[in-house]
TrEMBL record:
Its EC number(s): 2.7.7.3
Protein name (Swiss-Prot/TrEMBL): Phosphopantetheine adenylyltransferase
Listed InterPro entries: Archaeal_FAD_synthase, Cyt_trans-like, G3P_cytidylTrfase, PPAT, Rossmann-like_a/b/a_fold
PANTHER family (alphabetical): FAD SYNTHASE
Amino acid sequence: MKKVITYGTFDLLHYGHINILKRARELGDYLVVAISSDEFNKLKNKKAYFSYEERKLMVEAIRYVDEVIPENTWEQKIEDVKEHNIDVFVMGDDWEGKFDFLKDYCEVVYLPRTEGISTTQIKAELKKQGILK
Ligand code: C2G
């Protein structure tokens, strides 16, 4: 069984997230998604609208996703790859090159981001419409 892993916050879930999860899953037979914890988001200077538990519930419901684990640190990736017998690590190409150190442990694939959509953009749009503070 070829196992794939990817990482992210996956806040305000949108079709850009679905696209990368679909393509990641197509690179193997089993997809693990490491979702950034609320504490780790602080390290990433991200304030998610939905909590870790809410984001986990939504990502687990996606047909391409087989397992969700928490992402608590930048340093956990090598351990995750070993512990979960991962064959392929996938990230959007906004991270191009940032995780090449994982090439010693698994295949590393950066996939093109989906243009025209982002959580930041959604928040800005909702703020403009006075829906989000
Ligand atoms: N993504 C995408 N297209 C978009 C938006 C996001 O392909 N329009 C991808 C990103 O490239 C990333 C994944 O969706 O691979 C999750 O995006 P975020 O939730 O923004 O994750 P990020 O904050 O980049 O966290 O350790 C890695 C970090 O946790 C990555």
